[in-house]
Prior knowledge:
By secondary structure, this protein is mainly beta. The chain has a single domain, classed as Neuraminidase, CATH 2.120.10.30. It contains two helices and 26 strands. The strands form seven sheets. Strands 1-26-25-24 form a four-stranded antiparallel beta sheet, with no helix packed on it. Strands 2-3-4-5 form a four-stranded antiparallel beta sheet, with no helix packed on it. It is globular and about 55 Å long.
Amino acid sequence: MNAERQASGKASRRFRWWVVGAAVGLAGAALAAAYAPPIRQWIVAVMTPTYVHVERSLVRRGASGDAPRGLDWVQVARGLSKPTDLQFVPGGGGLALALEQGGKVRLLDLSRAADRAAPPAEPSATVLDLAVRTDSELGLLGLAFHPRYRDNGLVYVNSTPAGGTMRTRIAEWRLAPAELGKVPAHDERVILEVDQPYPNHNAGQLAFGPDGLLYVGFGDGGWRGDPHGNAQNPKVLLGKMLRIDVDGRSAGAYAIPPDNPFVGKAGVRPEIWATGLRNPWRYSFDPHGRLIVADVGQDRFEEIDLVARGDDLGWNAREATHCFEPKEGCRTEGFVEPIFEYGRETGSCVTGGYVYTGSSIAELRGRYVFADFVSGVVFALPLPNPDIPEKGLREGKKLGVWPMLVSSFGRDEQGELYAVDYGQGGVYRLVAGSSPSHR
């Protein structure tokens, strides 16, 4: 009897604890549902790794196949703090603007970059100093010169302002060529603001195309797996490539180009040029005017895309050419295939670059050069012939592995390439022949 009562008491207590546990679980689920975005924002901010310079074995020779050999990166500038972008001043004789994640735009004189005996340049002035959020992937992220910059002195900046709602701001600033290094940028005009649900996957690039229009790349808004379905939602700008006219502003801060693919279509934002992007971290135009986008992957693959009018790159149904959601049997129709992908054995965070159009490295001319931010691998990719329809992935070549966290590339007016090292705050120029990696 006593044994039966003891067993009954234990069962009763287990039942009561089960009821309490179930109630707590339901309450926790309700709380998580109500506060999931703030909790996720906090997790992203706290868990984002701190990226620092890592010493690696320097590889200067071509890594595979017919990749050009004897290449190296020579340091041409130093003294930057977590640089995120490098843009050469049009007609500036080697002047460049370097962006720092913390909000400063610094002026660099790289006119002696080709002289290997010259010491690395240091910032000579701060031309813009913004108050920005910097947790996770937020901050000052991109800059573009207006195609008629020499005449109108206009530059466009992508940042995440401090205070208020977490958001991306695209703004126009006046910084005339004669004012560089003398007068800070002034007369801000806000072009566009978009709320951000999380502090990652903000993208940040700005680039004017050969058509004179501004291309604005937005990531899917963050967290993992695009939980809000932004990349495939035509009613939102997140997870998209936009194309806008900053000059034609008869109504509002910008105009919609009439030949944008979704103009006049109900339920679709007319600014959208392409959809299905996860986190387009750097993009540029090739000599034929094609838009090349490096889209950062989630769990397994990084990708390079040629993005044209109305394209859908497939996120979050696919990650590169592979199913993501669901893991098997995902939708494939209507999606545009990438031209290159690589897996985690090679790297885990792609940084887009430029087509090399310089003259000092003949073997690289016409190839798209890009890198992996985490592994330090630098690639050269031959692009498809624009006159011959081609399908399938291209074969890229590894140029080598360097001890840099390449957050961005730059290209001067002679077509020579530069890499920005986020970890050490340096700028490096790609050169032929064996040479010291640091001056």
